[in-house]
Design brief:
The protein is an alpha/beta fold. It folds into two domains: 59 residues, Ubiquitin-like (UB roll), CATH 3.10.20; 65 residues, no CATH class. Helix content is 17%, strand content 54%. The strands form two sheets. A four-stranded mixed β-sheet has the order 3-1-2-8. A four-stranded mixed β-sheet has the order 4-6-5-7, with helices on one face. The longest helix has 12 residues. It is elongated and about 65 Å long. It starts with a strand and ends in a 5-residue tail after the last strand. The relative contact order is 0.22.
Length: 139
């Protein structure tokens, strides 16, 4: 399956107050943009009042996605994988991971646990605007 980053704009019901206009980002696993747009709209339908528009849909690639049910934020960690050839030449390849965590410290800890067996260096870790990651049905 392929991962897509979708951005949506809609009015969300916020309790008894008037609906608020929001713009949110989601990662959805699927076959194509049409497929993931439909899945996402079905998922957020209960929270929408009024029109909803998918403002963008693009393919994204992640080395791994680290889910955590206790976390409510998504962080993007970038690492460089290091390999040394027989001739001593060092090569580096960057990889990006998505990490769900409660805070930056938990995200960093989870990232270190996941890549501790690899020869790599942490390049960066930052909080993303991603609201949720929707995996393919049956996974």
């Amino acid at each position: 399956m392929i991962l897509y980053e979708l951005k949506v704009a809609y009015e969300r019901q916020t309790g008894e107050d008037n609906p608020a206009k929001v713009k949110e980002t989601y990662i959805v696993e699927g076959i194509n943009c049409t497929d993931v747009e439909g899945r996402l709209l079905e998922e957020i339908k209960p929270f929408i009042s009024g029109d909803c528009e998918v403002t963008s849909c693009r393919k994204v690639q992640y080395f791994d996605i680290l889910d955590n049910t206790t976390g409510d934020k998504w962080y993007k960690g970038k690492i460089e994988l290091i390999t040394v050839e027989e001739d001593g030449k060092e090569t580096r390849k960057s990889a990006t991971l998505l990490i769900q965590a409660a805070d930056l410290n938990q995200a960093l800890k989870r990232l270190h646990e996941q890549v501790s067996h690899l020869d790599c260096e942490l390049v960066s870790i930052l909080r993303t605007p991603i609201m949720d990651v929707l995996r393919a049905v049956g996974e």
